[in-house]
From TrEMBL:
Residues 17-120 form the FAD-binding FR-type domain. In the N-terminal section; belongs to the FAD-binding oxidoreductase type 6 family. Keywords: 2Fe-2S, FAD, Flavoprotein, Iron, Iron-sulfur, Metal-binding, Oxidoreductase. It comes from Pacificispira spongiicola. The keyword DNA-binding does not apply. Its cofactor is FAD; [2Fe-2S] cluster. InterPro entries: 2Fe-2S_ferredoxin-like_sf, 2Fe-2S_ferredoxin-type, 2Fe2S_fd_BS, Beta-grasp_dom_sf, Cbr1-like_FAD-bd_dom, FAD-bd_FR_type, Flavoprot_Pyr_Nucl_cyt_Rdtase, FNR_nucleotide-bd. One of its GO terms (molecular function) is 2 iron, 2 sulfur cluster binding. This is Hybrid-cluster NAD(P)-dependent oxidoreductase.
Length: 361
């Protein structure tokens, strides 16, 4: 990385690759157990991504590094550095390691960017961004981008947290909304901080609150990210109001919880609990018998092979492998494109082998 304070124009830099070494350049405490880490590339290349996308970071937690996926809270309108804002839950391994160990100057390998949760795919006159907890990170990236874009884009932005002290990016959001009439900002908390007055909305987000904060929400393209019960509550409000759910988009940081009715029907062969399958890992020369209901990732691990993986529910794309023979049943959550599938790629974490299958691992 070049010397601090040196200016290098964008047109003299390369742009970053799918796998890149990053250098941590700044660490900003945001809220309890929540920290923003800013990175530059080790070779001074610039970052190209869509606002709302994520990267996966390789964290040297133990003898085997682990991968964790984080949304880029930064905006691609400022392409020289990126940031992720991470919140460690109780028992966290990867995120806790970052908060306790990562220092300015440390290097980490990053994979990505990936993800389809971005307003850029859904052009609209008006947006409604709703985020809860660390789920506000994609909303922050998209709002920063639209603000930097310099055009008047109508955004209703709702930032929810347990307490006011846990609201992420509150000051920067206030600054942006005070400078332009187009960003209508609202905060919702479940309870007050002790000994501190709170004049904003209090309680769980409901229909009445939504009508007060964004009276024209039925006309908006809606993006929502947060814990599953939070997103379910938002979906319920919208469904009751008769909102056209084609204009609702959400991202889950964890495996989606689906009711029986929500499980989609697939037109390929569905794996059977009783049926056996056979996996050939062509590059390593390893073969394994398994059940059709096992994932390729699980079978590889049991056979002592390492397929890099992060989310393990088909969203981050880290575990993409090339299938050279046979069929799989794959239930992904957007971590692979139709073109990649047509080229023979599958996501190992959410693909189950039907009969004999060979992969390039
Ligand atoms: C597309 C995508 C984007 C993401 N963006 C962000 C982001 O911007 N910021 C961020 O902080 N995280 C983000 N995540 C989540 C992140 O990737 C990790 O899954 C999360 O931080 C947990 O990893 P960990 O190492 O902290 O905990 P782990 O070591 O994986 O988990 C330890 C234990 O904590 C539990 N646990 C983990 N997370 C939670 C939770 N939220 N609530 C309750 N229990 C939990 C686990 O079930 C496990 O028992 C994103 C995930 C995805 C898929
Ligand atoms: S590990 Fe994220 S898609 Fe498989």
């Amino acid at each position: 990385m070049m010397k601090l304070g040196t200016y290098l124009p964008l047109n003299e830099r390369a742009y970053w690759k799918d796998s890149q070494e990053l250098v941590c350049v700044m660490i900003i405490p945001e809220a309890p157990d929540t920290v923003t880490f800013c990175f530059k590339t080790a070779d001074d290349s610039w970052f190209l991504y869509q606002p709302g996308q994520f990267i996966s970071l390789e964290l040297p937690v133990g003898p085997q590094p682990i991968l964790r996926t984080y949304t880029l809270s930064s905006s691609p309108s400022r392409p020289i550095s990126i940031s992720v804002t991470v919140k460690a839950q109780a028992d966290s391994i990867g995120t806790r390691w970052m908060i306790d160990n990562l220092k300015v100057g440390d290097r980490l390998r990053a994979y990505g960017p990936g993800g389809i949760f971005t307003f850029t795919k859904y052009s609209a006159d008006k947006y409604l961004f709703i985020g809860a907890g660390s789920g506000i990170t994609p909303m922050m990236s998209m709002t920063r981008y639209l603000f930097d874009n310099g055009e008047h884009t109508d955004i209703a932005l709702i930032n929810c947290a347990r307490r006011p002290s846990e609201l992420l990016f509150a000051n920067e959001m206030r600054r942006m909304s005070q400078r332009v009439p187009d960003i209508k900002l609202h905060f919702v908390v479940e309870e007050d901080d002790p000994y501190a007055a709170w004049a904003g909305y209090r309680g769980r987000l409901n229909q009445l609150m939504l009508e007060l904060m964004a009276p024209d929400y039925m006309e908006r393209e809606i993006f929502c990210c947060g814990p599953e019960p939070f997103m379910r509550a938002v979906r319920d409000v919208l469904n009751v109001a008769g909102f056209d759910m084609d204009h609702y988009h959400e991202e889950s940081f964890h495996a989606p919880i689906r009711t029986e009715e929500q499980v989609p029907e697939y037109d390929d062969v569905v794996p059977s609990e009783e049926a056996t399958a056979h996996l050939t890992f062509a590059l390593s020369g390893v073969e394994a018998d398994c059940r059709e209901t096992d994932s390729i990732l699980t079978v590889a691990r049991e056979a002592g092979l390492n397929i890099p993986s992060a989310c393990q529910f088909g969203v981050c794309g880290t575990c993409k492998v090339k299938k050279t023979k046979g069929e799989v049943h794959m239930v992904h959550n957007g971590g692979i494109t139709d073109d990649e599938i047509a080229d023979g790629f599958v996501l190992a974490c959410c693909s189950q082998p039907i009969g004999a299958v060979e992969v390039e691992v």
